[in-house]
Amino acid sequence: MYHALPSALPRPNILPGYGEWSPEQCAEALVQWESTTSRDRAAIDHEVLAAIESCIAWIREAQVRPGWGIAGFFF
Fold first, then answer.
1. For position 72, what pLDDT does the model report?
2. 0.85 cut: is pTM over it?
């Protein structure tokens, strides 16, 4: 919501990190993913594909809630 880490958390130098996808970015990513073919998806490493499919599930969840995006912490 504020495009930055909450003030109580230290800002990371490299990792861990924090990122956000706006509702518009989520919608765009979903359109891009849905435009891929089964052949495109088959060419992706299975671990990478599993990670992408997890992200797509998050995007779908956000899309059913107007105004929602995704915020993530990663390391």
1. 87
2. no
Dihedral, 11, 15, 16, 19 alpha carbons, nearest 10: 80
Which residue do the tokens 């052949």 mark? 39
Q: How is residue 58 written in tokens? A: 């998050």
Q: Tens of pLDDT along 11-25?
A: 667 767 788 999 999
Q: Cα–Cα distance between 36 and 48 in angstroms, integer?
A: 15
Report d(CA 15, CA 69) in Å as an integer: 22
Q: Residue holding tokens 């992200």?
A: 55
Residue 5 DSSP symbol: -
The partner residues of 71 in beta bridges, in order of sequence, read 20
